[in-house]
Amino acid sequence: MAFRPVWTQIKRERQLFGRFGYRLFAFATWIPVVCMFNHYVGELAWIQGPSMYPFLNAEKDQTTRNDIVFEYKFNAQYGLRRGMIVTFWNPYNPEQKVVKRIVALEGDIIRTRSPYPSPTVRVPLGHVWVEGDGGERLSRDSNDYGPISTNLIIGRITHVLWPRHRFGRVRWWEFAENIRN
Known about the structure:
Helix content: 10-25%
Strand content: 25-35%
Shape: elongated
Number of helices: 2
Structural class: alpha+beta
């Protein structure tokens, strides 16, 4: 006689944990999908610092909010062009991501700024020359660490998501003509 009430109690608990377990399982199955998407396809990136001012963080003097952009990672090292904004691992601190604009591609001759030791440099094969839009004082870029390997590039900035009044696609090709040589 005591077996029946215990069984009904276990059955009731199973139904309760069954719904919770199902929802937990449904949520947990999406975690690898989101991780794979962030690692291989794209992710949101918060732009910090003034090195890409005025294109990114244009309101740096008016607010403490950072721009939020979409970083497209799929085949990021291929099809690079002058003017593109890319993210890459910092050559001096490999745990830090950096956002800069491509100024020169492999084989190009570029006039450097200080503190680079020579006035001109030819970008070697498999490398690009990157600089920030903020000028000499605001940016640590290829003028500090030289041409970067394309293997360090991990993504391209394709869209500005925040602030909302600047929401939209990054038109990097409009800046390609304004790049200094």
